[in-house]
Amino acid sequence: MNNDQRFFDFLKERIGLDVTSVGTAIIERAVRQRISAVPGRTADEYWQALQHSAPEQQALIEAVIVPETWFYRYPESFATLARLAVKRLAEIKHLRALRILSLPCSTGEEPYSIAMALLDAGLAPHQFKVDGLDVSPLSVARAKDARYGKNSFRGADLGFRERHFDLADEGFRLSERVREQVRLQVGNLLDPTLLVNEAPYDFVFCRNLLIYFDQPTQQQVFEVLKRLTHQDGVLFIGPAEGSLLGRLGMRSIGIAQSFAFSRQGAPEPQPLPALIPPPLPVRQPPRVVPPVIRPRPFAANVTPIAPPKSSDAATLLANIAALANAGKSAEARGACEEYVRSHAPNAQVFYWLGLLSDMAGSALEAQGFYRKALYLEPQHAEALVHLAALLASQGDAAGARRLQERAARSGRTADSEQKR
What we know:
Elements: H1 5-15, H2 19-22, H3 24-35, H4 43-51, H5 54-64, H6 75-91, E1 98-102, H7 109-120, E2 128-134, H8 137-145, E3 147-148, H9 159-164, E4 165-168, E5 171-174, H10 176-179, E6 182-186, E7 201-205, H11 215-228, E8 229-236, H12 242-247, E9 251-252, E10 260-262, H13 313-325, H14 329-342, H15 347-359, H16 363-376, H17 381-393, H18 397-419
Parallel strand pairs: 1-2, 1-7, 2-6, 7-8
Antiparallel strand pairs: 3-5, 4-5, 8-10, 9-10
Helix pairs in contact: 3-5, 3-14, 6-7, 13-14, 13-15, 14-15, 15-16, 16-17, 17-18
């Protein structure tokens, strides 16, 4: 398709997607899939069909969107929500139900996690209601069905599954008690009339969305989020979006790993300090790295591996590591781009792309790739360290320091697990 700009512009207009945030390869792959849905169809013919078919427009959007979610993702956010909800009810003297919003809600794991967390915290059903919105009708339909497979249940603590789910065909069905707390609907955050007649929400979850927008769209979306969030409310965002909200006038509520921000008491913008502590070092693994272990970038004396003929993901990942470690940057980037075209998104691949861009002096491109790696794997230690260094070089001392602290916590967790 050769970077056909018209498809990029269409997605930017419809859902605000900045092509640089996900890379052209992902969009081109989605367009190729939709073109090939009709044998023999050309790109121009598909473009004409796209202009006159609302279902096809939605089908392209669905092909680009990659729902990556699970129950209780970022568990400290839900623990924080439960504590704040109890406090908020006391502040409003229990005169009304709490209002919570989740957008994008994807296939429902987040809004249902909110409802389960509040029920488990002792709130009665009449004390809160959750709204979930997503631009994808397919995702909303799956959320309403509330049937989930093992990929939606991750982590060591799955006690909530015993409390709130029943066994169903090939998975689990969420209990009616939880489903009744959540209202799901299709909605687009770029729609200026979105929820315009609704009262503001006490808590809003909008995680890992802003990173896919360019700066003007980020500002536009942020204004909508402010309108939807009560003056005394709290906005929960993704791990990679904290520095952005800080620049937009929000402040962290100060609870580690909650990724929660408030408008109350936000400090006036201050000049950034000239110097900040250097990024934390990354532990050195062995020089020769098996395919299943992350290699130390660009280590010496690594024998290059020939490009694989197989499309197997593990083989391709091993080849990327070997090429990068051997200093073959162009070949390594080509292997990364091949992986993105042919496989599901992978945090380590985006980390390699970030590092390769970093080495080439493309700081903004590197920053985008590191953020994509952290979206898929929030505690990816190398991505945290390198993104912190980039933010520091750009003068964002606060953002860099937060990432350094997260990298340090990640390192301590890994050390404690190795000692067990």
